[in-house]
Design brief:
By secondary structure, this protein is of the alpha/beta class. It folds into 2 domains: 2-30 and 324-428, Aspartate Aminotransferase, domain 1 (Alpha-Beta Complex), CATH 3.90.1150.10; 49-320, 3-Layer(aba) Sandwich (Aspartate Aminotransferase, domain 2), CATH 3.40.640.10. The chain has helices at 2-6, 33-36, 45-55, 69-81, 95-112, 133-138, 142-145, 175-188, 215-225, 247-250, 278-283, 304-323, 325-341, 376-386, 408-428, and strands at residues 12-16, 19-22, 27-30, 86-92, 120-124, 155-158, 162-166, 169-173, 193-198, 202-203, 209-210, 229-233, 257-260, 272-277, 347-353, 356-361, 389-390, 392-394, 397-400. The protein has a 7-stranded mixed β-sheet with strand order 4-14-13-12-9-5-6, with helices on both faces. Strand 15 and strand 16 form a beta hairpin. Helix 3 (45-55) packs antiparallel against helix 12 (304-323) and helix 13 (325-341) packs parallel to helix 15. The two termini are 28 Å apart.
Length: 431
C-alpha cells in the first residue's frame, strides 16, 4: 500500500470504444480491457440502448423464487450456445462465486448419490480461480493466496505443461508429464476425488500460461475414467477471448460445470453464470423434507440490467466470430506482437493466443532474476501510461489484453508504445 499510495492517482471520467479519458482530458488506450472484462469497447451504443430500455422496466427483482424475462432468456441462450450436455444455468455476480457454486454443487451431488467421501479437489499448478475461500482452495496461486493456506480445504495440484505460442505457432513440452501426474493423483485418490478444476487453454493470472491443443480432451478423458467432475473456469477465456465463444465448445468438450463471468456482460455490470448438466440437476430433485435442495443465493443473482446487457453482448460477440472479424483481428494482433518483441532485449519469454499476450522481462545477463523491489513490470506500465497506454503487470511480466473490437491502427499504437516503454525502462536501468 505504501507503493500504491506513492503513485499518482488516475481518475477515469469517460470512455469511447477502446479509449478512456481521465478527469484532466488525457486519453489512454485500454490495453487490459478494464481488467479483461471489456469485450466490446466503452460506451457501446447497442449495450447502452438495451440497458436504458431495461432501466425503464425494472432494475432489480430477486431471482430467489421469482424469475424475469431477461434472466430466463439469458439462461436459455447460454444453454443453446454451450456444449450439449449443459442444460441448466445458475446466476451469480462474479467469477469467484461462479466457481464456489460449481464446487458446492459437486460436493453436494456426491453426498446425494451416497458418495460423501468424494470431497477432494484437484487443480493445476499456478491455477487461479478467485479470492473467496473455496476458489482459493481449488487454486494453486502461492503469490495471491499462500498466506491463507491454513484456512483452505484440502486439495491437490498437478504440474502444467510447458507450452508457448506466437501467431499460431505452438511448441509444447512436458504434456505427458502433466497428464501422467494427474492420472496418478486420480488413481491414488479415486474414492475421494470430487472434481478437477482448470482454466482451459490459458491460465491468465498465472502469466498467460498456455496448454496445447488436445490437452483438455485428454484431461476430460481422465475425469470420465475416474468418475470425477470436470469444472472449467472460463471466466477469462470465455466470451471470445481466444477467438471462439467458449474453449470447451471449440474443443468439443462436455464439462460437468462451466463457469463464466468477466466478458459475459462486456464489463458493464457484474454477472456470472455456472452451467451444469441435467444429470447434476436431477440429483437435487425431491420433496422439501428430503433436504436435497441447493441452498445458495445472492441478493443480485440474475440482476435484470446485467442479464439484458449480457444477452446483447453475447449476440454481438457471436457476430464478431461469425463474420470473421475477430479472427482477422487476432491474426493482425499476432503479427503486430511478433514484430514488437523482435529485437527486444531483456525478454525471457513471450506468448500470445487469441487477443491475449504476455512479455516476460529479465535482466540483461539472464542469470539472476530481478530483485523483488525492482518492480520492473510496474515501471514499464507507468512508462506506458505516459504514452497514452493503460496496462497492468504481473510482477515482471507485461500482460496485454485489449477489447475484442480493437482496430488495426489501435493495435499498432499499443505495441509501438509498449515497446518504447520497455526500452525506456531498460535504458534507465542500464541493463
Amino acid at each position: 500500500m505504501k507503493e500504491y499510495c506513492s503513485i499518482p492517482s488516475l481518475h477515469i471520467e469517460r470512455g469511447e470504444g477502446c479509449w478512456l479519458w481521465d478527469t484532466v482530458g488525457n486519453r489512454y488506450l485500454d490495453g487490459n480491457a478494464s481488467i479483461w472484462t471489456n469485450a466490446l469497447g466503452h460506451n457501446d451504443p447497442d449495450l447502452n440502448r438495451v440497458l436504458i430500455d431495461q432501466v425503464g422496466k425494472v432494475s432489480h427483482t430477486t431471482y430467489l423464487g421469482l424469475s424475469h424475462p431477461a434472466g430466463a432468456e439469458l439462461g436459455r441462450r447460454l444453454v443453446e450456445l454451450s456444449p450439449g450436455n449443459l442444460t441448466r444455468a445458475l446466476f451469480s455476480d462474479n467469477g469467484s462465486n461462479a466457481i464456489e457454486i460449481a464446487l458446492k454443487l459437486s460436493f453436494q451431488y456426491w453426498q446425494l448419490v451416497e458418495k460423501p467421501e468424494k470431497r477432494l479437489v484437484v487443480g493445476m499448478e499456478g491455477g487461479y480461480h478467485g479470492d473467496t475461500f473455496g476458489a482459493m482452495s481449488a487454486g494453486n496461486s502461492e503469490s495471491f493466496h499462500g498466506r491463507f493456506r491454513a484456512w483452505q480445504f484440502e486439495s491437490r495440484s498437478f504440474p502444467r505443461p510447458n507450452c508457448s505460442e506466437i501467431n499460431g505457432r505452438i511448441t509444447a513440452q512436458e504434456v505427458d508429464r502433466s497428464l501422467e501426474a494427474l492420472e496418478s493423483i486420480l488413481s491414488q485418490e479415486s474414492k475421494r476425488a470430487a472434481a478437477v478444476v482448470i482454466e482451459p487453454s490459458i491460465q491468465g493470472p498465472a502469466g498467460m500460461m498456455l496448454q496445447p491443443p488436445g490437452f483438455l480432451e485428454e484431461l476430460a478423458r481422465l475425469c470420465r475414467r475416474f468418475d470425477v467432475h470436470l469444472i472449467l473456469d472460463e471466466v477469462f477465456v470465455g466470451c471470445g477471448r481466444t477467438g471462439d465463444l467458449f474453449v470447451c465448445q471449440a474443443e468439443s468438450i462436455e464439462p460437468d460445470f462451466l463457469c463464466l463471468a468477466k466478458g459475459l456482460s462486456a464489463g458493464y455490470l457484474p454477472i456470472a453464470a455456472t452451467l451444469t448438466s441435467e444429470t447434476i440437476y436431477e440429483a437435487f430433485l425431491g420433496d422439501f423434507d428430503s433436504g436435497k435442495g441447493f441452498y445458495h443465493g445472492h441478493t443480485f443473482t440474475g440482476n435484470p440490467l446485467a442479464a439484458r446487457v449480457a444477452l446483447e453482448s453475447l449476440e454481438k460477440i457471436q457476430g464478431l466470430i461469425e463474420s470473421g472479424r475477430l479472427k482477422r483481428t487476432i491474426h493482425y494482433f499476432g503479427n503486430a506482437f511478433e514484430r514488437a518483441i523482435s529485437g527486444l532485449k531483456n525478454v525471457s519469454g513471450a506468448r500470445q493466443r487469441g487477443l491475449s499476450a504476455v512479455i516476460d522481462l529479465i535482466p540483461g545477463n539472464g542469470v539472476k532474476p530481478w530483485k523483488v523491489n525492482d518492480r520492473v513490470g510496474l515501471e514499464v506500465c507507468l512508462a506506458a501510461r505516459e504514452r497514452g497506454l493503460l496496462l497492468r503487470p504481473l510482477m515482471d511480466s507485461i500482460l496485454v489484453v485489449p477489447p475484442l473490437v480493437i482496430e488495426n491502427e489501435e493495435i499498432d499504437f499499443l505495441f509501438a508504445n509498449l515497446k518504447e516503454a520497455i526500452n525506456t525502462v531498460m535504458k534507465k536501468k542500464s541493463i
